[in-house]
Design brief:
5-stranded parallel β-sheet, 141 residues, globular, disordered C terminus, alpha/beta
């Protein structure tokens, strides 16, 4: 099972990739939304989850989220937003656009491992969209 890890920071990609491999999955890394769309097309039959930063150059995470959700072939893939933006309005905006869950940086690796498992569990139950953190339960994990 492959997880697409999208962040413009090489250090954060490595941290998130380590959490992916801790869950016994394979990480596919991308440096921004545009790069991620290319990788998603290359691995479209293998990607089971997208972990997506919000603030990136070229194409930001919100733009990528909207682009992915606009393509029916990717409807089944959960998207975990992992970003420094913990503003309630941004969280709700991402969830409304189709993010599955949300995690605010900085976070402990264990919190990310837990969110990955939650997203994949919701996918297995047929709930690829919605059901993530709402602004009312937003916390820094």
């Amino acid at each position: 099972m492959k997880v697409l890890v999208v962040d413009d920071s090489g250090i954060m990609r490595r941290v998130m990739s380590n959490a992916v491999t801790a869950n016994k999955h394979v990480a596919v890394e991308a440096k921004d939304g545009a790069d991620a769309l290319i990788k998603l097309k290359e691995h479209k039959d293998d990607i089971s989850l997208i972990i997506l930063d919000w603030n990136m150059p070229v194409m930001d995470g919100y733009e990528m989220l909207c682009e992915v959700r606009a393509q029916r072939e990717y409807d089944h893939i959960p998207i975990l937003m992992a970003t420094t933006d913990g503003v309630k309005e941004d969280v709700l905006k991402a969830l409304k656009a189709g993010a599955t869950n949300y995690l605010v940086k900085p976070f402990e690796q264990e919190a990310l491992v837990k969110k990955i498992a939650e997203c994949l569990f919701s996918k297995s139950r047929g709930k690829a969209q919605g059901g993530g953190n709402t602004g009312s339960d937003l916390q820094r994990d």
